[in-house]
Design goal:
The chain has 6 helices and 2 strands. It has 121 residues and is mainly alpha-helical. It has one domain. It has a two-stranded antiparallel ribbon.
Length: 121
């Protein structure tokens, strides 16, 4: 039995459901997640992406981005420079879990579902 994204979120991130307007994050995640690409893992992918959007919005308020260096006077310390975060999904643990899922769900070159392949490309 497949669980809905909200049922999955209830288990992995219950504080998400206490946020007003949480349905918006789920709807946005559904629009930006390909059911053809993820197949049976679609609901889990939507749940992870919704949690990612929620965390970016609720916990990152007031931050302009990732700290890549600190500077005081003429002394500077670098933490990797420009490009440390290559993709938006790397900014949260939910996004990194989704990236792992993406890496394991690649459409095989021998796929016969050409419509899914075209949408993926």
């Amino acid at each position: 039995m497949t669980q809905s994204p909200l049922e999955i979120i209830e288990v992995i991130c219950p504080e998400f459901l206490t946020t007003s307007g949480y349905g918006y994050y789920v709807e946005l995640a559904e629009v930006n997640t390909s059911e053809d690409y993820f197949g049976e893992q679609y609901e889990a992918a939507v749940a992870l992406r919704a949690c990612h959007y929620w965390e970016l919005n609720s916990k990152s308020r007031g931050q302009n981005g990732t700290v890549t260096y600190l500077m005081e006077g003429r002394l500077a310390k670098s933490f990797g420079g420009i490009g440390v975060i290559k993709r938006d999904l790397e900014r949260t643990s939910w996004g990194r879990q989704l990236l792992d899922m993406i890496d394991t769900c690649n459409i095989a070159a021998s796929t016969t579902n050409y419509e899914a392949l075209v949408r993926y490309l």
